[in-house]
Each structure stands twice: as C-alpha cells, then as structure tokens.
Here is the input.
Amino acid sequence: MRNIRIEKALQRPVEQDELEVVERKGLGHPDSISDGIGESVSRALSKAYKEEVGHVLHHNTDEIQITAGESDPKFGGGQIIKPIQILLTGRAATEFKLPNGKSQKIGVDSIAIKAAKEYLRDTIINLDVDYGTVVECKIGQGSADLTDVFDRETTVPSSNDTSFGVGFAPFTQTEKLVLETEHLLNSKDFKKKYPMVGEDIKVMGLRENDQVTLTVAMAFVSKYVNDRDEYLNLKDEFKNIIADNAPNYTDMGVDVLINTADDESVKDESGYYLTVTGTSAEMGDDGSVGRGNRSNGLITPNRPMSMEATSGKNPINHVGKIYNLLSNQITQEIAQDVEGVRNVEMIILSQIGKPIDQPRTATARIQTQEGYKIEDVEQDVSRIIDKWLENITDIQDFLLEEKIRTF
Amino acid sequence: MRNIRIEKALQRPVEQDELEVVERKGLGHPDSISDGIGESVSRALSKAYKEEVGHVLHHNTDEIQITAGESDPKFGGGQIIKPIQILLTGRAATEFKLPNGKSQKIGVDSIAIKAAKEYLRDTIINLDVDYGTVVECKIGQGSADLTDVFDRETTVPSSNDTSFGVGFAPFTQTEKLVLETEHLLNSKDFKKKYPMVGEDIKVMGLRENDQVTLTVAMAFVSKYVNDRDEYLNLKDEFKNIIADNAPNYTDMGVDVLINTADDESVKDESGYYLTVTGTSAEMGDDGSVGRGNRSNGLITPNRPMSMEATSGKNPINHVGKIYNLLSNQITQEIAQDVEGVRNVEMIILSQIGKPIDQPRTATARIQTQEGYKIEDVEQDVSRIIDKWLENITDIQDFLLEEKIRTF
Amino acid sequence: MRNIRIEKALQRPVEQDELEVVERKGLGHPDSISDGIGESVSRALSKAYKEEVGHVLHHNTDEIQITAGESDPKFGGGQIIKPIQILLTGRAATEFKLPNGKSQKIGVDSIAIKAAKEYLRDTIINLDVDYGTVVECKIGQGSADLTDVFDRETTVPSSNDTSFGVGFAPFTQTEKLVLETEHLLNSKDFKKKYPMVGEDIKVMGLRENDQVTLTVAMAFVSKYVNDRDEYLNLKDEFKNIIADNAPNYTDMGVDVLINTADDESVKDESGYYLTVTGTSAEMGDDGSVGRGNRSNGLITPNRPMSMEATSGKNPINHVGKIYNLLSNQITQEIAQDVEGVRNVEMIILSQIGKPIDQPRTATARIQTQEGYKIEDVEQDVSRIIDKWLENITDIQDFLLEEKIRTF
Amino acid sequence: MRNIRIEKALQRPVEQDELEVVERKGLGHPDSISDGIGESVSRALSKAYKEEVGHVLHHNTDEIQITAGESDPKFGGGQIIKPIQILLTGRAATEFKLPNGKSQKIGVDSIAIKAAKEYLRDTIINLDVDYGTVVECKIGQGSADLTDVFDRETTVPSSNDTSFGVGFAPFTQTEKLVLETEHLLNSKDFKKKYPMVGEDIKVMGLRENDQVTLTVAMAFVSKYVNDRDEYLNLKDEFKNIIADNAPNYTDMGVDVLINTADDESVKDESGYYLTVTGTSAEMGDDGSVGRGNRSNGLITPNRPMSMEATSGKNPINHVGKIYNLLSNQITQEIAQDVEGVRNVEMIILSQIGKPIDQPRTATARIQTQEGYKIEDVEQDVSRIIDKWLENITDIQDFLLEEKIRTF
Here is the structure.
C-alpha cells in the first residue's frame, strides 16, 4: 500500500486572487539555455550508458554555468567580441566494471561537450557555436556509493535523498497565455517569417482582476534589422500578433508591452534590445540551471513551487527531478480525466534509501467544481496517483524520448 | 500615491494544512556557500565603490558556481585530493570616469577574490582556503547603459527589470523549528563544544498534522571523530540535543533523524557522512547561487516563493533582490505590530525604468485573527508598506552592515 | 651606415665533428601544434587589424599551452575520453581609436579561437576539433605604450626589446635528412597512401662519424590499423621507405629505428604507439610554444641557437622573432649565392627603441671553402646583409603570406 | 663499459670570438617563475611520494603557463586589478597500489597548488599570493606504462625517451658577470637595503672584443618609490653598484645600462618600469617553463644548448632533465680538477628503454691549455665521466635537497 492522501483544499482558486503573476523565461534566456544544456547532457549520457553498459549509470549534470560573452551588435550587422563561456559541472560515472573484471571507459567529457554544442546549435540558430562559445567540462567522477545503487539490477531504484516534488493543474488562463505567447514567438513558423526574433524571450504576465498585462522582452538579431525605423515597426507588428493570439487562451483583456527598456529617442543601436546571436548571454547576462522556469515551464508565485533544479539530474533515482515531473503528469491527468475536479495540487515526499515508488507521502489537495464533493473524486484521484507511482520508471523513458519538458 | 493594495486572504492558515514541508540548507551547504560568496562579493564591491567613487556602481555577482573537489576522509584524519573550484562570474563596473575626464580603475577581480576567500575562511572553519580551494574570477565589465543609472545623482534609483518579490510572516512553528535547529548546530557555542560538526547541515521538516519529523543531514569533520563508535555515539547525542531544543519553538511532537543514508553495518568510513572540511563541496556536491534557501532563510513549498536569487545582486536597483528583502521586512513588521493580523503575504511588482519606490503594485494578502476584519487592520498595514517604500534605500544600508540575511 | 661585421670562423665545420645530433618535432608534436597555433593566431590578428585599421596593431600570442586530454585507442577504433585543452594567452590590442575619436572594437578572442581551430582542422586531420578539443582564450589587452609604437605611421618600427636572433646555412646532410624525413612522412601524398600515419612524428638524427641513426617516433591512427600484425608490417614498410629516401640527402650510411618504445611481445594495443587522432596530445603529452624546433625547423645543439619563441610574436617590432627569421634568410642567401662560402652563422642584436633596420650589430661568421679567403667574400656578404636589413619589413609580408616557416 | 668518448675541440675559445652574447632571466622573470614553480611542484611531489610510497612515482610538471594579470602601479602605491593566472599542467601518478591490493590516493592537486604558492611566497616577496594570483591545477594522471617503470625496484631506472643533454665549463668572464650581476641584485642583503628592487631582473651581456655592455631591465616596486626623482636617483645608484661589482668577475671594461625603455621626459609613472609586485607578470608578460635560462642559469648562443626544459621534469628517468644536469656537474668538475683543461663541452645521448647510466654516448670535447695535449687529460676526464654516470642517481638527491639549480 502506498502512502497516498487526498485533501480538500480550502483556498479560493487562483483565478479569484485579485493579483496573479506568471513568468516564463524563453528558450534563449541564459537560465533556460543552462537548463536545456544540463538536460541534454544528462540525456546523452543516459543513452551512452545504455548502449555501453545496458542501463543508465549514476550522473547529475544539473550544474551548468554560463558566463556571458561580449558582443558589438550593429543595425544590419555586428560581431562577437568574446565568446560565451559555458562550464559543465556535476558528476558522472566514467568507468564501469565489466563482468570479466575489466573496466570499460566512458568518454563522459566528450559526450557532454558534444551534447551541449548540439543543443546550442539546434536551439540558438544565430549563434555560431564553434567560434561564439567555449564549452569547458569539469564533470567529476560519481561517488562509489551512489554508483552502486545503479549497478544493482533492481526493478525500482531507491531515493537518493530526502526531497520532494510538487505539481498542479490545470493552468489558469494567465498561465496558459504566458506559456503560449513564448511558444508562438519561438515557433519554427514564426522564426521562418521573422528571422530577426532571437530565442531570448521573457514573458511576464500580470493579471489584475480580469485585465492582463503581458510584458515581453525579446532580443532582436541585429543583422536582420537594418535600422531604428525597421526595429520600431517590427515591435508594433509583434505587439499586434501577440495581442491577436491572446483570445485563444483567455477571454480577459490583454495589454502587450515589448522591450520596455528601449529608449526610442536614441538613433543608433545603443537604445534598443539588439543582439548578434539572439540571446543576451552574448553580452551581459549569465545563466545557470534551476534559476528559471520550474519543471512545468513557468514561474508562478501564486502556486506551490519546488526549488529543485529538474534539468540535468539523473532520471533514475533523483527524486528532486522525478517527483516534480511525476507531480506534473499526475495532476494533469487528474484535472483532465476526473470529473468534478477544478484544481489539484500535489506534493510527493521521498524517504532516502526507500524505493522511489514508495514515497513517504503523495498528497493531492483538491478543489472541486461546484456541485462536487471531495468524496466524489477521491477514488479516481487515488487510482491515478497509484498508477503513476506503479509505473514511475516511465518517467525515465519519457525523458530519453524527449516527451516531457523539464523547464 | 503609491500602488498599495490590501486583500483579504481566503485560504486557511498553513498551520491547518495536513501536510507542511519546510527545508533549510545550512551555511556549509554548497548552494548556501555560493549564496554567501555572491553576497560577500557584492558587499565588498559596494564598499570599494563607495570609498573610491562615493556611491555604489553597477554590479551583479549572483552567479557563483562551485565545482566539487575530491577528498579522502578517514576516521581521525583524511586529506584533500583535489581542491574545490569556485568560479565567480557576473559583471561589475571596472572603471569610473572622474570629473576631470580621467578614468579611475577599480580592482574588481582582486576585490572579489579577496571577499570570497575571506567569507570562506570565516564560514567553513576546517577548510584550508589556500590549498583546498581554487577561486577563479570571470566577472565581466558592466554594460554602459546600466552603469549610467548609477552614475546619476538620483535620490531613488530606477528598476533594472520587470520583476517581483514576495514575502510572508509570521513563520509557522515548523518553519521556526527548522530554521532554529540549523542555527543551533551552526552556532559558535555549539561548534566550540562539538568541533566535529561541519557547517554543511541540511534540515528538512515534515509536519503531518501535529507531528513533525526533522531529518537532519550533517557532515562530520573526520579528524575529530576517531572511529565508528564515536560517530554513532555523537549521532545519538545530537539527536537528543535537537529534540530537547524543539520545545522552544513548537508544542508539537518532534521526531529527529540524523544522516539517514548511513550504513551502520559498515566498519570503516565508507558507511558514514564524513568529510575533511565539514562541507560536501569537498567531494561530490556542486553548488550555485539561488538554488537553495529563499531570502528568508527557508524553502517553503506551502508558501509563495520567488525564483530570484537574492544573494549577490546589486542592492541599488535590482528589484529581484530589493523587493524580496523588502517584502520580508514589511511582512515581519506587520505581523509583529498590527493587532489582528494572523498571517500576511506580500508581492511587490516593479515597472522597469520607474523609481523603485514606485512599484507597479505592492499587494498584501491578510489573514486576520478571529474577531478581526480586514478593515480593522487595513490602515496600519498600508502605512507600514508606504513607510518601507518611502525608505527603500535603507535596504542597501542594512545589506552593507550585514543586518539582514539574503539566504 | 649599418653595424655590419664579418668575421672569419675558426671552428672546424660541423660535418667534421665526430658526433652530431639533430632533432625535428613534426607538425603534430604537441610543442609544434602550440607553435602552429600561436603563429596562426598572430597571422589572423594581423590580417584583421590590417582590414579594420589599415595596419597591424600590437600583439604577441606566443604563449599557447596545450594540456593533454585522455583517450582510449583500440586497434580498428578507439575513442576520445577527455578533450585536449588549449589555452591561448598573450595580449593584443582590442580597441583602436578612430580619427573621429570613436573606438573601434576588434573581436580578438573570437578571431583567435577561430584561427586556432582552423589551424587544428587543417593540420591534425583525424582530430575532431569540435568535440576533441576545448580552446579557451585569455588573451589580455596590449599595454598602451607598446600600442603607440604601432599607431604611428613609421616606415621602420622600433625594437621592442634588447634581444637577438641567430641563423646559419647551409644545412649539413644530417640536418637535411632529419628535416626531409619528417616532411616526407607528413606530406599529403604520403598521408593519402598511408592514412594511419598521424602527424605527431619526431625524428632524431645521430651522426657518429659517417654513420647516421634516424630514430623516428610516429603516432599511428588506431582506426586505420586493425591489429598488431598490420602495425608491425607497416613499421617495416615505413622503415624501408625512410631508408630509401635517405640517399636523396646524404651519401652516408643510415640506420632507421621506428617507435623504439614498442613492446612487440604484447598482443593488444598497450604495447604500441597507437592514438585516436594522430597526436600524443590526446593523452599524456602537453605542449607549449617555443619548446620545440627553432625557427629553421630544427633543434641543433652543435649550432648556435636562440631561446626566443619565434611563433606567435608580432611580426612588426618583436626582434626576438624578426631577427631570427632574418638571420635564416640572410644566411641562406649567402650560402647559396656567394662563391667561396662554406658555412655562415649570423647573430643580429637589437637596441631597444631604435629602428629595427639599425641593429646594434649584425655579425656574420664565415667559413670559407678551400682556396677562398675571407676577403674574397666579405663584400658580397656585407651587401646581402645590408639589403635584407634595408627591406626588413618584407619579413612581415612573408609571414602573412605564409612564405616562411617559424618552427 | 660505458660509451665514453673524448674529442679534441678545434674551435677557438669563446673568449676569442669578437662578439659574445649572454643573457640571464632573473628569479622574478615570468619564464623563471614558471621554471621555479615547475621544479617546486616536482620536488614536492617527489617528497610526498617518498613519504607515502617509499619511492618517487612517475610525474612531469614541466608545463606551467603564467597568464599575466593587470595592475595599476603608482609612485608610492598602486594596486592589483586582476590577479596573475597560473596554470599547472603535466601529469603525475595519483594512485598507488599497495601490496595488499588496496589503492593509496595521493593528493596531487593539493600538493602541487601548495608547492606553487609557497614558492611564490618565498620568491616574489611583494606579491600577495592569496589575492594577487589564481593557481589552477590540471595535472593529469600518469600513463600506466610509464608508472610501471617506477614501481619496479630497480637500482638504475631506464631512459624515458631518446634525448640528450649538454653542458660546458668553465664560464667565460662575460657569463660569470651576467650571472653574478643578477645574483647580486636578487640577494637577500641587497633586497633588505633596496626593497624597491623587484625580483624581475633581466641581464643581457654583450661582449664586443674586450668591452662588455650590461643591459639590465629591473622592475621597481611602486610603493617603495615616491616619485620620478627618487626613481632616477636610484637608477644612478644601481648603475654604480653594478659597475663596481663587475671587477670581481672580469678585467674588461663594463658599461651598464638600466631600464633603457624608460622615457625620462614623462613626469608620471607611465614612463618608467614600475610594478606593484616586482614582476612584470602582474601586467603584460606571460611566462612558461623552458623558455628562459638553460639549466646552468644562462642563455648562451655562442655555446651548445639543449632545448629541453629541465625544470619540473621527474628526476628519476627523464633524461632530458638528468643528462643536462649531469653534463653541468661533469664539466664543472673536469674544468676545476683536471690540469690542462681550458674548456670542456659535453653531450650525453640516451637510448630509450636502456638504463640511464648506460647512455648511447657521453662525449666530451676538450680544449686544452697551452702546453697540454688531449692525451694528457683523457684519462682523468674519462674517469670523472664514468664516476658521475656510476652515481647518476645522486642527481635525484641533489634536486630534492635543492643543491643544484635547474634554471
């Protein structure tokens, strides 16, 4: 029997708060780049371990530090002066004892550097990864004890730590709007049409009663913008596009502000948010894993959040990663499938050394829809939680197949 | 007129949640060390700027990456194999134009390295900073635009970003207990009596209804523990000390667990939480700024939290830092001084480019005590918020004088 | 009038020494790779300066440190475990004041990293530069004073230092043999036919009276050698090729030894000189500029040598570079064109701050052929020296056009 | 029987060359600092190995790269802006298999960093090593094969490579003068009296027939020099001291030039050779091992030289180090003790894999004094060479006890 608990939530729904704040750091934000690299490295190592050894070995690559470079963007051009420095740290098993007693070496540094560079190439399309970045790897070897956990042929691994994960569903309109606004601006179609829009896009949504203000900071790619007038016209165009997109996610009024720090009295590039590469990491903005979006893609101070960095942690026994992702999956399924649930929040707490499918507690806090009581939904909710815990190692597969986000 | 708003909270008090989770990463946890270094560097730079230039110049040193070293702890001894790598990044003004047109150089790298090392020396007493760490500095030069903001003789600086801070008060019993347990174990008196207790202490509090479980992970300093028996006896002793201390903060039942990952069947050091220096950063655990405690010293998923790293940001116009600290101060004063307030949560939201004493909104959400209505407290609460905003630059002084914590 | 001096040498010719030692570190030796990178970076910066500013600005990039990686070569395959670390240091002007008072930035770091990587790609053909190396750049900004020298529109720059260069000609048979043996093994034709021969080839020639022993250390590329037998057969084949090539350069007897550290009793790869990439820098051997070949391509303890690293120094006023290269050119022309000269050695000594075409002394020490007196050749020798000094800035062009080697 | 050969030299003595150039880079020159650190690290590792394991294990730490910092020297003060970066590379055995099959770890990184810092503290007295330097260690693990050589209990180790060493004696007057001038200026007594003289002192001696010009570049320590006048007066004083010291080593005329790049028309510090720490490594001048003095302390293009970096190589089987040092010892003893020897040069050539006391050849080339024939000295010379080869492992002890210099 698993320790599953269902509570009735007494709070009013977030939608009824007078003030709601939601933020998303887009793909090209330095913190998100760090998250993305950390997760890519973990994924690449996991695959390499599976190929070489048959199962994933111990690793945690959730410590990526981006040190900003220096650039000289100009309308219609610009250059990189000093590349972005990317430090990969963490640890990973670099050797595996084969049954015959010999050691099999795993090229952790090479795999990690390759994964990081490929991620960058795929993600920040105007960044010349070869000449615009320096990727250094200081990943240490995993400690022997933890490595053991992975070597054993266990059906369910044991928790690495006393830790917890949280999740909630469904998203409010403001949450959806913020997330989807970034998705739109970073979509392939949009980039094809508007190549001057870099990936470094931060969307801050502020709902005051039933009016939303979307403040969007978006890096322009300098070589695709010829002058100030073009820049300003584009800003107007994007404002309209964002505003027109909003009704897909909300029926509230939406104001859009773009690059509010611009000084439009200035003629040359110094007054505008121009970059050579599309990310502010090229000049001025450092980044690191776990400082930005939570594992559901958002920062939501009105909601329960975990401080755990999800990206880059090993998907086998790091409950700080797994329980956050699991909470997202569980709450989404509950919100979607259980009639009568208006909102659900989860917290799953581990016990170090115990199998990860046996948490100390998995607690769901439910707001029911009008006309429903907690007893009406309890059984279904409990069943869904149990099913996900039963199949907890699916999370590992979802991650390797890139079916779920971590930031 | 400032945008101050007072709301009535509809949630039940956190104390009435069936499940409450609270965590504190102690001073010697790698994330906390990063926070402490980041803030020390900011403080040292601020002082140097004041001395050389008359006012604080632009800087943000909230990106510190600790890459774990390698060690070989032994009962009664042990050695460092590979030092802890500490990378200081961020940016800071390295030059200041004097009225005569000449430039005054500021030795940012030297100041930063010195501050980091001094912090480490003061904080991790068994760490030989000279030979057990490598402190590297890649702090870049501040961008010209932001620097300008600081050069102007303004009474109130303008927001650097669209961002927000949150806070709440008072602490629940569980919150107090977690915080004070770490304080006790890292107090000077305790360290004098028990030199074998390192600074890397993580306290996780789990309240289930009215029963609290405190799970404490504490690094022992190997040279002060002669063998397994001594280690186990000390664990017992500390369990009692922590349990005996609890009633000062709570009337609930408290269970204490220490170093639950130990394997007591093992005779040699491999089964226990032994370190040479008192921090797990010596082997295996990386750290970075903003990944651990929030600015009130705790991680509290039942409470509103901000993702902003408070430590290391400049105390002049970085609202991600200032509004979090301000929210803590305001809510504490409200909880303490306003009769009838049971719980208060705040969110302060900035407008980029506007003076920081004029936030877009400063909203307090109040739970009143029985017998009080929101109208009874509204005026006092509003007055306190306004007073703090009026004197917002005090936060800068508090930080330089080390009167308030940031992690 | 220039300070040109012609002396009669009293030594016997090197050919008459009973013992002569000559060494060449081939293109792929870690020290030579460092030299090559240093010179490539200097060349790339020189070209960029010319393009952006109109003339070469101050720089010295003669400090490249290669830290070996880690690899796991196997017959028929193998992998890189840890990339080769390449640190570019030195200094270079990063800004140039335009006539309008504005500053023009030069992307020194990006240019340097690009030049280093392109050099590696061109030179070590089996090295995957992207994933098998980390190129980090810590080139500092040039000091203002030295920069000035370059800003002035001078016909002849002034010496940067009190320093000297040396040269000699013609090469002995042993010298030619050593040089040409490496050239053969690293030629394009040879590589096409024998792709398993890496670029890391060290040739040591020992002449004892009229018998030469060539000891060749050559890295094999593991993926092109299927097993021990193939390796040993190839060694035999190469021994014959080298021996057959020798009569082109010498009429002495020549013994050839290849990879003398091999242990042929071993079956697996551990007994042989196998590499994944063709250079020992992939595992075990560090390198740095100026530690290997002198500017004429050889190490010749029987001959005068300069300790100056020629590669990577600026080609404008660094006499440590220019006078060595000039001495090579001058002595070669003298040896070739002046009838009666058997051997010539030169030393050119600078005076700091004086134009580089006015050395403190340019001294030639001549051995004449039988039947010739020093007076017979003095005038021609003097004329050649004077002509080269007159046209000393040609050296700069030769370097930019890659017409002369530096290592 | 050892391969010892005695030849008659036909050259005229160096003293009879019309032109003789001799250079010494003093203790504080960046290249010499690198040499000193490399050798200190090797010494510290050797001692640690002996203590932990009983004998020296494999290591080579002859790759030290100093990247210059940035400073702001002022008459009477000044500050360090950016510390000197010191990268320790090379490789060393980090583990040793004990007879019981267990591994003993050796804290190579910690030992190396400690040795480097202690050397700096002892050598560059005005350098604040804590805050003015960053010492990073990337020493890799020694390859298994080479490690084996050291594990065996052999009386005489085997050569690591095909390589050679050279030496000569006695020093000419110019050589002695250059060496002793630096020794004087860097002596403890002199530093006590003249604390403003930094350790970065380069002495270039140029002998033209029987007139010597000593060009001395010496870094002044800014805090000990109040203004330009004091600086100029000191230069005059030092010029006299150096000139007065010369007759102890030579009967030739000696001209002394100090800091010839100074621009005495300038009033402020920009015109003079001022440093905060006493070494130009603080700003502008990088350094690395093996780029400066040969193992006898001098650079002597008129003499046979080896390119091998002596400092930092292991003292057990690295013939590139041992044979150079041995050649110095042998030639000194011959020059001093064998009647009739005017000058002696040696070359010792190894055979990879053969015991180091059995070189391929040890050849001495002798100039006899008037009235002596080669036959008169041959036997004594041969005996001395044989004795040193017989006792070749003494070199190891001399190095550990710091009885012989390596640069």
About this structure: The radius of gyration of chain B is 23 Å. Residues 143-147 of chain B have pLDDT under 50 and may be disordered. Residues 30-53 of chain B form the longest helix (24 residues). Chains B and C do not touch (no CB pair under 8 Å).
